[in-house]
Amino acid sequence: MSEWIDLRSDTVTRPTAAMRRAMAGAEVGDDVYREDPTVNRLEELAAERFGKQAGLFVPTGTMGNTIAIKLLTRHGQEVICDSRSHILNYELSMMAWFSGCVARPVATSDGRLNWSAVEREIRPPGPHWAPTGAIEIENTHNMAGGTVYPVEAIDEICGQAHARGLKVHMDGARIFNAEARLGVPAVRIAAQADTIMFCLSKGLGAPSGSMLVGTREAIDEGRLLRKRLGGGMRQVGVLAAAGLIALEQMPARLGEDHDHARLLAEALAAIPGVSLDPRAVETNIVIFDVSRTGMTSPVISARLKEQGVLINGISPTAMRAVTHYDAGWIECQKAIEVLRKVLAPVAA
User: What ranges in the chain are assigned the alpha helix state H?
Assistant: First the structure.
């Protein structure tokens, strides 16, 4: 296929024309020496957008989360998180490998922790168990279908955690999707979190890079941890230039992705054999059940690919479609037509 309709993830977005121009003309320097002016501007802007003291540009969200967990914990502790969280399931066990911590997963119906569930899992120092080191929340929640935390729930978790001497990290890879959904600025959503990681790629469209923000002391230490992980980059202003445009211009358009996701969800719900509640789709991620189609998700993915549509399964019976800058209304309409065609035998 010369041009795929790619709904596998919002990670597949390509940089905009404005980003490409900015990258070509970026002012650069050696970032390990703190001499890349474009990176410096991006880090300052990121900190400002979240009301924090400092920011750190990292190559990936996984590195940002890894550094944050290390900053907030000590070896031999537990990290309370949702059972489907990205840090637990999709980051190669970096919590254990790098930070020497284990997860204390909490099962939720929608990816949103609440204080009562968290409180039950907090463990003080004792002779038989690992003490709680930190709490992690994911907003929006990827594998729960892009669900968004109410601000009040975040405030309660952070406030109660802080009262017990515990820190909170927010995996805000898609926090600007939460901002668009709630109509509440990201700075308010994450106000009480100690560290926040957010991606410049995904919905914001930059080709690479994520940000970690927090106190100046934490970010200074995080810069050393970034080096340990191999993330000490040199003339990386060519990427930071795209990141500046991503952060300044792209959050305002995320509502379009949410509209397209609802369009997709409503059409999918009407296809025989597909199960989902369109009302549960809050942002740009649509997870749907295909167990009644008589086909597994790999089979459906293969048949969709033959027709030029890319959608991945997340289990043998569930699939995930993600809308983004490069998958607009027209692409979603075409994908719906292909889905109906592929699943036509079920209707028959």
Answer: 17-24, 37-49, 61-72, 86-89, 94-97, 115-121, 151-163, 175-182, 186-189, 216-228, 237-249, 254-269, 297-306, 329-342, 344-347
